[in-house]
Amino acid sequence: MIRVFLLDDHEVVRRGLADLLQSGGDIEVVGESGSAQEAARRIPALRPDVAILDARLPDGNGIDVCRDVRAVDSSIKGLILTSYEDDEALFAAIMAGAAGYVLKQIRGTDLVDAVRRVSAGQSLLDPAITTRVLERIRNGVEQPRELRSLTEQERRILEYVAEGLTNREIAARMFLAEKTVKNYMSSVLAKLGLERRTQAAVLATRLLGRST
Predict the structure, then answer these.
(1) Distance in angstroms (rounded) separating the CA atoms of residues 92 and 173
(2) Which phi and psi (to 5°) does residue 197 adopt?
(3) Which has the closest alpha carbon to 149: 179, 189, 182?
(4) How high is the pLDDT of residue 105?
(5) For a tag site, which of 64, 67, 102, 113 has the least CB within 10 Å?
(6) Is 152 within 8 Å of 140 (Cβ atoms)?
(7) Are 42 and 70 in contact, with CB atoms under 8 Å apart?
(8) Cβ distance 98 to 125 under 8 Å?
(9) 63 Cβ contact list (under 8 Å, min separation 6)
(10) Rounded mean pLDDT for each run of 10 residues along the chain, 212 residues in total
């Protein structure tokens, strides 16, 4: 049996998914939740083969849950289920170690097949897109000398700061918790030898050619 955990903030969606998945006879739903924080605690304890994770939730997002869960137990496969086709979210999902990223418009039989394939160790991420993301991480645009100490995530956060986004807005854009963005921002300031966010914004605007 393939053990599955469901994370979606709508109970009717979870019930529908459970009925759909269990109708084939080889999949068992071992747990469910409507809360990102609760799911991040329960999934490692239940040790499902696959966790189907809604990308957007009232108290967080499934991509963060995928990252947190796989940090504890990398054998658990994350399948991100979302209503939105979003390159930024797809990038975040790949960085979080998700095995698949599918839209909620997917046919029921295709979702069941996706769970089986992910459980068997296959990736449902488009190889072309994955390659593009990995190239973006490895190469990117030639970085100014001052920014070379930053990680890819830190650089992207700095770019958003230069655009005038708040931590909350950056968190929503990158599918991260606001606290995580604050931690990244502290690291950025330390690496750049700066004390204030406004200094970072001015530096980023100059180095990255951003218009204010």
Answers:
(1) 10
(2) -60, -40
(3) 189
(4) 85
(5) 113
(6) yes
(7) no
(8) yes
(9) 53, 55, 80, 89, 92, 93, 96, 98, 175
(10) 96 95 94 96 96 91 92 94 75 84 88 94 73 60 66 86 88 88 91 86 73 41
Q: Any alpha helices (H) in 23-126, and if so which ranges?
A: 36-46, 62-72, 87-95, 108-119
Phi, psi of 5, deg, nearest 5: -115, 140
Is 191:154 a contact under the CB 8 Å cutoff?
A: yes
Q: What is the pTM of this model?
A: 0.66
Between 167-174 and 87-95, two packed helices, what is the crossing angle to 10 degrees?
80
Q: Which long-range contacts (CB under 8 A, 24 or more apart) does 153-160 make?
A: 153/95, 153/184, 154/184, 154/187, 154/188, 154/191, 157/181, 157/184, 157/185, 157/188, 158/188, 158/200, 158/204, 158/208, 159/204, 159/208, 159/210
Q: What pLDDT score was predicted for residue 49?
A: 97
Going from the C-alpha of 121 to that of each of 7, 74, 98, 126, 149, the distances in angstroms are 21, 12, 11, 15, 34
89's tokens: 């979210």
Side chain identity at residue 107, one-letter code: R
